[in-house]
Design brief:
Length: 75
């Protein structure tokens, strides 16, 4: 599981080059706690496409090697 934010990182998603430009947090109320947070990432691809992907899906695809992070902090 990833712990650092991918915001601002350049990624290779299959054959598409993109950058993670935004983190979208959505909260819902439930009976057990005040809020249940879900995090999504907005990815802008250099071919003009945009994708909203859940953090869980993004992390799973990185672990599987289907998404590769090309730029790490400080590089």
């Amino acid at each position: 599981m990833r712990h650092e934010s991918p915001i601002g990182r350049i990624i290779l998603d299959g054959d598409k080059l993109g950058i993670v430009i935004n983190e979208i947090k959505v909260g819902t109320m439930n009976d057990h706690s005040l809020f249940n947070w879900d995090v999504n990432y907005e990815i802008k691809y250099f071919n003009g496409e945009t994708c909203i992907m859940t953090r869980t899906s993004f992390d799973r695809l990185v672990e599987m090697g289907r998404i590769e992070i090309l730029e790490e902090p400080g590089e």
